[in-house]
Amino acid sequence: MTQAALKDQRLELLVQGAHCAGCLNKIERNIGALSGVTLARMNLTTGKLAIQSQGGGLSPGLVIETLNDLGYRAVQYDPVQARQAEDKEGRRLAIALGVAGFGAGNAMMFAVPVWAGLMGQEMGEGVRTAFYWLTALIAGPCALYAGMPFFESAWKALSKGKANMDVPISLGVLLSLGVSVYETLLHKQHAYFEAAVTLLFLLLIGRYLDHRLRVQAKSAARDLLALQAVTALRLGADGLTQTIALAEVQVGDRLYVAPGDRVPVDGLVIEGRSELDVSMLTGETAPAATAPGATISAGALNLTGNLIIRAQARSEDSTVAAIARLMEAGAQSKSAYVRLADKAAALYVPIVHSLAALTLAGWWMAGLGFPDALMRATAVLIITCPCALGLAVPAVQIVASGRLFSRGILVKSGAALERLAQIDHVVFDKTGVLTHGRPRLIDPDPAALALAAPLARASRHPLSKALALAAGPGPTATEAVETAGLGIEGQIQGQKARLGRAGFVGADADLARETELWFALEGQVPVRFVFADELRADAAKTIVALKARGLTVEILSGDQPGAVARAALGVGVKDWRAGLAPIEKAAHIDALMAGGRKPLMVGDGLNDAAALAKAHASMAPGAAADASQSAADLVFQGDDLFAVVTALDVARAARARALENFGFAAVYNLIAAPAAVFGLVTPLIAALAMSGSSLVVMLNALRLKLAGRGR
Question: Is the pTM value of this prediction over 0.70?
């Protein structure tokens, strides 16, 4: 591509290695500073870097070179290649998991007979050594390959002067293999090849599940971006329409939006009137009327009339794209959360490894031969191997997740349970969370309902559909004509009739209220139909239970103040805000967290997706939008809002069990480590003690399941 070709055009690159908000800011800042660049926009979800330039003064080679200097590899953007590169880590972990499982299973074929021989069965030294070499032949290469994710992570941590849980795991695996080779060469009784690869197999299960969580976090933003139209209809100067890709829409283009289509980009209405379904964007249940001069957002669903709009932003700068970027930032902030196991590792690693080093040095200086001193140091590492520490949290989380799953609550990560246990404030969306999210006709006059129903059946308006549902099946009005933003007119039993807004049917507009329809037969007094979104049956009970657990509660909604006020009064919540845009909800969550609060966000609409991603923990109902379910940490099925309380109780109980496991691991190490230091423990006894500590941790985790029975 030449410089001339870049004049006033775009360059799109696939950037590899960008994973966090820090990467995004660094790339956009440095590329944006290049001469000729007017805009640099990085999308973490797709890996695409879009660059706009003017004047032809920018070379693609310079951009790629700058990215390389920043530590990122860049190639020409290809959507197919981007999707293939996205899950490279997932494929690698899956292969490592398979290799570890193969190694663990097959190594046991030779390890079990040796164990039987050590328990008194007849087995000569030569046979035992041969079996050990066969075990090593299988388990050794498998462990070295499967352990690479841990080895690389440990090396990165150590190179930065830090320690994570992968450091002791890596050392334990490598030393176990090394000591096993040494023991086998000397024809001794004990080797631990199968233990190393089995440990890796168990740990890789958790590592792969954690990776899938990160993929789901990205899919949340992708689901939201999918709300945008794939194509747009552009109007030319001759008035003819042309179908173009969404990416080709430029600011200032005139676009045609037909009923049933989604608005492709943010724009200004220049012709036409209609009503838009913006409930998934703002949470407002009533359709929004629009007319020339109104500004509308990408993703809104056009319900009734034809619209011509003037594009005010490109697709990547639309309201939907902005929400997606907020979600990406929120997901990255969650990924930076320091888990309990890593906190424990930060204390555990330096203490245990220093103790092992001192054991080696002390016994060697005391006159013991280096091989024997090394064996005692290795015994220290084996008996204090962080198996119990590594299982302390995952074991509890697996049991807790299973218990919640049996109650219709899906937990998408162990870290989510940890964060949920820490919350001190709960934020509820109204529509679809505290309420069912479906308008219902309230106390209609049966005669008036029967008269209005034929017109309602001819309309696509959501409130008309609710009225028709309440009336049941029946005839449809003839000669029905729907006027966008006003209502529908037709013939009922030979008489003209209208259904819609107060002014449209001849009623006093001052009497108009939210979420209502008016109906009138020609020459008769208009009749009003009122709709409401009912509260969930256990909404008030849920709020009371949360307050009893020491939590504060508030409502954030995009709906009208009157509707939100009624819902808040019905469930007993004093703090509420209405009419909030998605970005305002996310900003409020940011403000809460900046003030030291740890909020739980419970929402269901696309307007909640960014707030769900940013909150300390988040939940969504099973009927929520795909993007909201992807962004949430937990998803609950059915109409039972009390699932929020259930999840909180289980999360708190899980945290208590995990802390108990850490306490046990600490006491175990305080007793076992000195015994190994003074040579009172052989490697076999060390291995048995290590396995026993892991068993205790698992049994303690199972208490969480037993505690849930009968409830």
Answer: no
